[in-house]
Amino acid sequence: MADHLFRHEAAKLVSVLTGIFGIDRLQFAEDVVQESLVRALRTWPYMGIPKNPAAWLTQTAKNLALDLIRREKLFRDKEPEIVAFLDQWPSDAAADESPMFENEIRDGRLRLMFTCCHPLIPQEAQTALALKTLCGFGVAEIAKAFLTSEAAIAKRLTRARQKIRDLQIPFKIPAGKELSSRLEGVLQTLYLLFNEGYKASSGDHLIKEELCQEAIRLGALLAEHPSGNQPRTHALVALMLLNAARLPARTDSEGNILRLKEQDRSTWNQAMIARGMLHLGESAAGEGLTPYHLQAGIAACHCAASDYESTDWSQILLLYDRLMELDDSPVVALNRAVAVANVHGPKAGIEAVEAIQNGSQLNSYYLLYAVLGEFEKQLNHFQAAIDNFRKALELTELTSEQLFLSKRLQDSEERNLRSVA
Amino acid sequence: MNTETATGEYMLLFRGKQWDKGLSTQELQQVMDKVTAWAEGLQGHGKARAGQPLGEQGRIVSGKKGGFVADGPFAESKEGIGGYLVLRADDLNEAVEIARSNPILEYGVTIEVRPILAECPAFQRAKGRAGRADQLLSEAVA
Amino acid sequence: MESNPLKCQSVEALTEKKIIIMNTSTTKSDYLLLFRGNMWDRGLSPEQLQKVVSDWFAWFERLKEEGKCAGGHPLEKEGKIVSGKQGRTVADGPFAESKEAVGGYFYLQVGDIDEAIEIARQCPGLEYGAVVEVRPVAEICAVKQRAEELSAGRVAEATA
Fold this sequence. Notes:
Radius of gyration of chain C: 20 Å
Strand content of chain B: 25-35%
Structural class of chain C: alpha+beta
Distance between the termini of chain C: 25 Å
Strand order of the largest sheet of chain C: 2-5-1-6
Order of helices and strands of chain B: EHEEEEHEH
Radius of gyration of chain B: 18 Å
Number of helices of chain C: 4
Helix content of chain B: 25-40%
Oligomer: heterotrimer
Strand content of chain C: 15-25%
Shape of chain B: flat
Number of strands of chain B: 6
Shape of chain C: flat
Largest sheet of chain C: 4 strands, antiparallel
Structural class of chain B: alpha+beta
Number of helices of chain B: 3
Order of helices and strands of chain C: HEHEEEEHEH
Distance between the termini of chain B: 27 Å
Largest interface: B-C, 80 and 78 residues
C-alpha cells in the first residue's frame, strides 16, 4: 500500500461525499469515510490487501452512503438524484483514467477548500477543519501539530461545522466579485498551515513535514484551477516550495539547528526548487505584487546561491525593502536587519534593529536577542554578545533552539576569555 | 462489486454463565447426550464444520504491547464463551433455525449466530502464501 | 475412547494431519485467539488505521507461514442472538458498542498456552485498546467431563 493511502483517499472521499450529502451535513460525509476505513481494518488483515485498495474504499463508501441515504429521512427528497450520482461515480480502476471524473474530484476538493477557508469562520477553526477534511488528519494528530489538546481541536471543528450551517455557506467555488477576497482567505489559511509545519518549534516532527507538503499540494491544486490560477497563488506555491526544498539541510543528523552558512546545500531538494522557480515565473505575470511574491523572491535568492558566500544579499535586501512597504511588522523588519548586516556590516545591522518601529513587540522574541548577539559577536563586543545570547536562552524552551543558542553563548564566552587574557 | 460476502458459513458462539450449576448428575448426563446427538446429527447432514468447547482456563491480553495478561474467569462472566461451532447454511435464517434446535438453550445458554466473512473476488493476496497452515485449515473445514 | 460431542470429523481430520505432519517430538495444542471489542478502532485516524491494517495483515501472514496459525476469519458485525427454551427468543445483535464483542478469531496451533499468549501480545490492535482472549480449544467439554466424573463417582459408590 502506498504511504498515506488511507489519509489521501479519506480526504478525496470526504470532498466527493460532501457534494452528495451537502456541506451542511459535512459530518455525515466524514462518518461514512471513517466507517469505510474501519471496515477495511476488519477485513483486510484476513483477506489480504486488495489489488486496488482505493477502489475498494470508494466502493465501500458508496455502499455506506446509499445505506445512509435510504435510512435517513432528511435525504428522502433528494434520494433519486443522489442515487443517480452514485451510480455514475466509477469506483474501479477505470476511474483513474477518466479525466472527466478527475475534474469532478478536483472541483469537489476546491469547493471544500473555499468552504473551509471562509473568512467568517474563526481562523483556528479554518485550519483545523482544512486539516481534518481536506488532508485526512485525525483529531489527535492535529492536536499534536498545534500543541494543544484533542478536546480543543474537537471544539474548533464543531464550531467550524456549525458556522458553515449558520452562515449557510454554499458549497461552490466562488465566482465574480467574490472570488478575489475568498481566494485571499484560502491563501492565508494555506500560508498559516505551511508556517505551522515549517516552524522549528516542537510538536511531532513527522506531522509537521506533512503539513508543509499538504499546504503545497493544496496550493498546487488551487493553482491548476481557472478560479485559483492567479499570480498570487503561484507566488504562494513558489514560496512554499522554495522554503520546503531546503528543510532537509536545516538540521543535522542529531536534530540540531544549523545556521544558513553551515547547511549542506547538497541535501536541498532540487526538484522542488525547479518547481518553485516555475511557479515563481508564473507569478510574475500581471502587475500585482504581494508579500507572497516578495517572500518567494527572497527564498529564490537563497536557492539560487550554490554556497553561502555566493548569496546575493543586495538583492535580498532590496526585496525586504519592498516587503516592508507592504508589511512593516517587526518580525519582517528583524529579518531585513539580518540582510542589512550581510550587505553593510554588523554595525548597520544593529542600527537597523534599533530603528524597528514597534520594536517593543519583539521584547519577548528570542530571535531578537539571538540576532543582536550575533552582530555584537561579529564586532568583537563579546560581553554584549554574551548578554544577548543569555537573554535569548531565557526566552526559548525548545531544546533544539536552546542547544543552538548555548553553542553561540559558549563560543562568545571563550572568545571573551581569550580577548581579556 | 461486492466488498463483503458471507461464506455460507456461520459461527455459533455459546455463552452461558455456569449453566450447569444445580443440575443433578443424571440431568447433566441427559443434557450432554442430547447435545451430542444434536451435534452428530448436524455432522451427518454435513451442516457442521469445525466446533469445539473452549477450555475454562485462558487469558485476556490487553494494553500496549499486550502488557496486561489476566486470567479468566470465563465460565462466570456473562459474556464468557464456552464453545463455538462453525455451521454451513444457506442463509442467516437457516443458521438461526439450526441454533434454535440446540437442546442446551433450555438451560440458559445463549447462542450468538454470526456470519463469517469470506474472501471475495475484489481481494487478492498481497503476496502469495501457500503453506501447510493454509492446507490444514482448508482440510479442517472440508 | 470417549467421543467429544462437539468435536466433528473435521477436527479429527485436523488432528490426524497434525500427527502425520508433526513427525518431531513436539506436540502442539490448539488455541483460539478471540479479538474482542468493537469500539477501539472507531477513533483512529486514517494514518493509524492504515498502519494497523498493514501490521495486522503482516502478523497473520507470518503466523501462517510459521505454521502457528491454521487460519482466521472476521465475523460480520451483526447477527442474531438465540435464547430461551427451544430458542424462542431471537434477537438482533450484538449491536451495542462493546468491549466484549467478538470481531474475529485466529486458530493457533502452538506448543503451549504461553506461546499462544506471546503471539496474542503481538496483536497490532492492542496499542489502541483491542483485547485478545486466548482460549485453549478443549478436547472434551469441561461440563461433560464433570458429568462423567460424577457418574463414575456414583457407580463407584454403588459398587463399593
